[in-house]
């Protein structure tokens, strides 16, 4: 039984710093039973594959390929059925395409002032600054007579302060 | 790849390639491929088979394809049966037979042939003690039988022909000598030179129209001698150089010659030498230009060892030496900053920086990141690699593992920690144990060697008088902290090492509690043993113990074949015995060191994928207690087949197999819980002391276990599987999966939790249970190898670091890969990205603000007082 496969690896070349080369692509039959490489035009072939159900995997750095289930008919030679195992899509012609590109590195988030301010510490600092500047303004708005009244009240009922206690102890 | 042509071969015979040379450049040259009794001509441009010829003679095996220099005639020489020689002449263009001749040779042929010159073939006879000189001129085959002892004095044993393709010169190898012979017509041969083995002869290399050169490399004392000769003038030597080489490389195995034209138009030669330890040296002008340790591509076993502790107090000589180096280094750096440095100096600066960088130091660090990876290669070389930059710290080619002159092949087996002195008594260095076998088969006697793990020096070596079938490292230690090892031989006798009365005493004390098991793939059985008092042998050997079979599980060979057996790693630490779910329910893990996972496949499905139908394939997974042989759990996967890869850790097993029905790979998980301790949830019982938490867990009693399992689809085939290991076992685990694409994927164990369900409740979500999906996700960012590939990946080793969050991962194949992983992020240390500058600036700003406001308040207070 001879199996000939047609492949065009749709490598768009937009890989994340990885040049899309067909020479870096391995095509693997049945989990390592046979390994072959794609030719420059994208074709590959496995020879002497018996009739039955087989699995083709593609290993290409930077791309995610779904394994392909290939049924080779024993009754009518040359009849081949193929389906992607990941999403059970039946392939009309045996063209393997990557399902998606793979990015192996996380993108580092750039330094951002807003993200710093949004953090709990940033919010606390913001609130404090706000109080420092807004509170005196609020004090200005209060009627000066009311302040005097309040101060007098304070004097009438003196709160024993810590410094006062110390001064008394010294004397 | 330009083209690929498949040639169907009927017999498993050696195939030969012969490229037809043609004077016209860029013309389509034919490549002749001969296998068995067929010859094919393949076009070198597009790979089309232009002709093929099957010879009619039965059992013909083509030995040589010779192209005649003048015309387009190709001569094919083959051997049929044991004594018949056949010669065919073919038209190179069409493949038609022009002439053919056959001749029977008396005495038979052993099959080794070599071409003497363009019309003389040399063949060895069946006894390997006589040579046939066969001449074929036109159609006539004439031969002459010459006994080797006629021209070689004091020959011992049989000889071998070495493939030296040169005009009129052949090389013969006997057990201890290599002979160079010159062909003198039909009458005989003459010895030109003889070299004591180990020596290697290269193929001949055409340097001019007529002349050919070849090289001989032999050992002279501690050096090797590199000799180049030209065939036209055999009495003289073009080059005779002595080269110093590293003593830990063994003997010369092969040599390949290459030439270059010097500026004065004379020929210079360089040679690539393959050594016994699989390293490659390039020798040119009497020096080793470069060398490569290619033995690292065939790793047998890996072990991690600690580096020495940093010592205080440095000797004076050391300081002086360092001072000069220090000055030199600073001069270089100054040059570098002033942009005056040349490219070489820049490289020197770079290497200086690397050497002085924290990760490459030769001392132990606080986090336990710096370690030595001790590697045993197939050739029998032990090497220590630094985890910082992968450089080789020491290497030792163990003498006992080297092939002896009698051709006995040794094989290295395993490597173990032998002695780890307690870190308070650092008088001695730690040492490692290397166990090997002095012969190819499993009954040949074993050998052991103990090496210092800091320097690689051999401290002790020993040759056993018994074979090595199984090596069992025990947790026991003797008074000098040497770890006890039990070596079981092929007669099921156990031998204790080290052989000291002290070790024996501690061993006898624990003997009744020691059990071991063995997996016999041939007999398809697992057997458990206990140790008896002493050997039944006549000789008094108190370190030898006989074994008694306690239990055996024999799998029916017609239904099941053992595919894999796996146990927990010996040094694994389990932190929590119980698992608390969100609804305050407690499940006790069944944590047993004696848990063995065995998977069997049906014999029809033992082959590759695609060879079995789903109906006839099944996979059975067993969980067995190795002390009692009790099967704790058994599960059958119908329509599943191997290859099976498994990992056992804590109370769970994860295994990978192929599901033929869905035609996808699957990963299954089994978690095993102790039901007998499940009643301890009752608070009243705890208060009244009626719990059995303090009861020892023993394999003698029948365990009451429950099992949870689940399976998921997985996209890739798997080459190797391992699990991360940390110092205390607190950090959550990740599975390390070596995929078919030679990458290593780190998969959280959370994805392999049998409690996953389609719609987890709120409580379960809080606990971190992921909703069930039919396949495991492959997140590209979780490849620990990132955009690198470990070519031909074979094994993954996880080593715990001292820092709990971190595990060290070493992956080997043809390439080596090492990295540091933190499965639940580095929660116990700051990351590398942590900005110390920002922290310092914040502190400084706060201090400044404090001072300023203090001054202000002082001033204000003073003003208030004056008011």
UniProtKB/TrEMBL annotation, chain A:
Localization: Membrane
All residue ranges annotated as the ER membrane protein complex subunit 7 beta-sandwich domain in the record: 21-124
Signal peptide residue numbers: 1-17
Keyword Transmembrane helix: yes
InterPro entries found in the cross-reference section: Beta_sandwich_EMC7 (IPR019008), Carb-bd-like_fold (IPR013784), EMC7 (IPR039163)
Annotated membrane topology: Single-pass membrane protein
Region (Disordered): 152-171
Domain of life of the native organism: Eukaryota
GO cellular component, one term: membrane
Chief location: membrane
Keyword terms, alphabetized: Membrane, Signal, Transmembrane, Transmembrane helix
GO molecular function, one term: carbohydrate binding
Family according to the record: Belongs to the EMC7 family.
Name of protein: ER membrane protein complex subunit 7 beta-sandwich domain-containing protein
Annotated source species: Brachypodium distachyon (Purple false brome)
């Amino acid at each position: 039984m001879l199996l000939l496969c047609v492949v065009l690896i749709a490598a768009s070349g937009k890989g994340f710093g990885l040049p899309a080369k067909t020479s870096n692509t391995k095509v693997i039959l049945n989990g390592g039973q046979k390994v072959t490489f794609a030719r420059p035009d994208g074709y590959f072939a496995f020879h002497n594959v018996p009739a039955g159900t087989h699995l083709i995997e593609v290993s290409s750095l930077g791309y995610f390929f779904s394994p392909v289930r290939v049924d080779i008919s024993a009754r009518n030679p040359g009849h081949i059925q193929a389906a992607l195992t990941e999403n059970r899509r039946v392939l009309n012609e045996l063209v393997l395409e990557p399902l998606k590109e793979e990015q192996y590195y996380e993108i580092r988030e750039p330094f951002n002032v807003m993200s710093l301010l949004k953090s709990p510490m940033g919010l606390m600092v913001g609130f404090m600054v706000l109080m420092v500047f807004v509170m005196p303004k609020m004090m200005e708005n209060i009627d000066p007579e009311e302040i005097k009244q309040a101060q007098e009240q304070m004097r009438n009922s003196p709160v024993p302060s810590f410094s006062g206690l110390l001064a008394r102890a010294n004397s | 790849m330009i083209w690929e042509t498949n040639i169907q071969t009927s017999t498993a015979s050696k195939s030969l390639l012969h490229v037809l040379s043609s004077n016209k450049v860029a013309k389509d040259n034919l490549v002749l491929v001969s296998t068995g009794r067929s010859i094919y001509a393949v076009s070198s441009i597009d790979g089309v088979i232009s002709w093929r010829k099957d010879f009619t003679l039965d059992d013909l095996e083509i030995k040589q394809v010779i192209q005649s220099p003048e015309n387009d005639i190709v001569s094919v020489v083959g051997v049929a049966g044991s004594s018949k020689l056949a010669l065919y002449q073919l038209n190179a263009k069409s493949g038609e037979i022009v002439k053919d001749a056959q001749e029977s040779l008396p005495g038979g042929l052993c099959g080794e042939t070599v071409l003497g010159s363009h019309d003389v073939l040399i063949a060895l006879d069946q006894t390997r003690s006589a040579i046939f000189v066969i001449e074929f001129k036109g159609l006539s085959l004439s031969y002459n039988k010459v006994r080797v002892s006629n021209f070689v004095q004091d020959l011992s044993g049989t000889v071998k022909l070495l493939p030296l393709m040169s005009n009129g010169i052949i090389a013969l190898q006997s057990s201890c000598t290599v002979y160079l012979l010159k062909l003198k017509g039909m009458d005989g041969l003459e010895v030109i030179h003889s070299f004591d083995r180990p020596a290697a002869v290269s193929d001949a290399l055409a340097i001019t129209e007529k002349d050919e050169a070849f090289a001989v490399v032999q050992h002279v004392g501690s050096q090797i001698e590199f000799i180049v000769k030209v065939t036209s003038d055999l009495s003289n030597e073009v080059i005779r150089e002595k080269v110093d080489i590293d003593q830990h490389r063994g003997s010369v195995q092969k040599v390949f010659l290459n030439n270059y034209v010097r500026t004065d138009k004379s020929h210079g030669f360089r040679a690539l030498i393959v050594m016994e330890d699989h390293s490659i040296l390039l020798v040119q002008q009497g020096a080793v230009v470069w060398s490569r340790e290619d033995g690292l591509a065939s790793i047998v076993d890996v072990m991690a060892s600690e580096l020495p502790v940093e010592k205080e107090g440095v000797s004076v000589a050391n300081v002086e030496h360092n001072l000069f180096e220090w000055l030199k280094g600073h001069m270089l750096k100054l040059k570098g900053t002033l942009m005056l440095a040349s490219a070489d100096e820049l490289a020197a600066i770079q290497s200086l920086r690397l050497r002085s960088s924290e990760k490459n130091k030769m001392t132990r660090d606080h986090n336990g990141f710096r370690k030595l990876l001790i590697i045993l290669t197939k050739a029998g070389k032990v090497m220590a690699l630094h985890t910082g930059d992968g450089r080789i710290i020491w290497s030792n080619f163990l003498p006992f593992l080297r092939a002896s002159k009698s051709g006995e092949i040794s094989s290295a087996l395993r490597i173990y920690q032998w002695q780890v002195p307690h870190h308070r008594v650092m008088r001695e260095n730690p040492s490692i144990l290397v166990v090997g076998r002095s012969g190819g088969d499993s009954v040949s006697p074993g050998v052991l060697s103990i090496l210092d793990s800091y320097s690689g020096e051999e401290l002790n070596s020993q040759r056993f008088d018994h074979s090595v079938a199984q090596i069992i490292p025990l947790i026991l230690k003797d008074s000098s902290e040497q770890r006890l090892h039990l070596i079981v031989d092929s007669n099921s006798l156990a031998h204790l090492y080290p052989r000291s009365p002290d070790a024996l005493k501690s061993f006898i004390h624990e003997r009744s509690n020691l059990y071991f098991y063995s997996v016999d793939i041939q007999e398809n059985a697992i057997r458990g043993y206990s140790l008896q008092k002493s050997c039944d042998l006549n000789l008094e050997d108190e370190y030898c113990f006989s074994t008694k079979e306690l239990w055996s599980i024999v799998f029916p060979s017609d239904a099941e074949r053992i595919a894999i057996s796996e146990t927990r790693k010996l040094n694994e630490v389990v932190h929590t015995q119980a698992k608390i779910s969100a609804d305050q329910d407690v499940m006790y893990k069944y944590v047993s060191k004696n848990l063995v996972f065995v998977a069997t496949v049906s014999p029809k499905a033992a082959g590759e994928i695609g060879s079995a139908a789903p109906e006839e394939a099944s996979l059975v997974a067993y969980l067995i207690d190795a002390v009692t042989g009790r099967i704790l759990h058994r599960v059958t996967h119908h329509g599943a087949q191997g290859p099976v890869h498994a990992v056992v850790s804590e109370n769970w097993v994860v295994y990978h197999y192929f599901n033929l029905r869905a035609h996808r790979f699957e990963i299954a998980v089994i978690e095993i819980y102790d039901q007998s301790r499940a009643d301890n949830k009752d608070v009243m019982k705890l208060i009244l002391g009626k719990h059995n938490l303090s009861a020892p867990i023993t394999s003698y009693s029948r365990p009451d276990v429950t099992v949870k399992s689940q399976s998921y689809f997985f996209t890739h085939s798997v080459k190797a599987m391992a699990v991360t290991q940390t110092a205390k076992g607190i950090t959550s685990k990740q599975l390390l999966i070596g995929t078919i694409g030679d990458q290593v994927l780190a998969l959280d164990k959370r994805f392999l939790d049998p409690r996953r369900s389609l719609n987890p409740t709120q409580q379960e979500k809080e606990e971190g249970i992921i909703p069930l999906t039919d396949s495991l996700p492959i997140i590209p960012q979780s490849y620990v190898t990132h955009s690198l590939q470990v070519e031909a990946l074979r094994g993954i080793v996880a080593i715990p670091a001292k820092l709990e969050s971190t595990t060290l991962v070493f992956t080997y194949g043809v390439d080596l890969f090492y990295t540091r992983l933190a499965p639940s992020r580095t929660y116990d240390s700051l990351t590398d990205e942590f900005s110390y500058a920002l922290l310092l600036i914040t502190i400084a700003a706060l201090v400044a603000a404090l001072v300023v406001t203090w001054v202000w308040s002082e001033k204000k207070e003073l003003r208030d007082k004056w008011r």
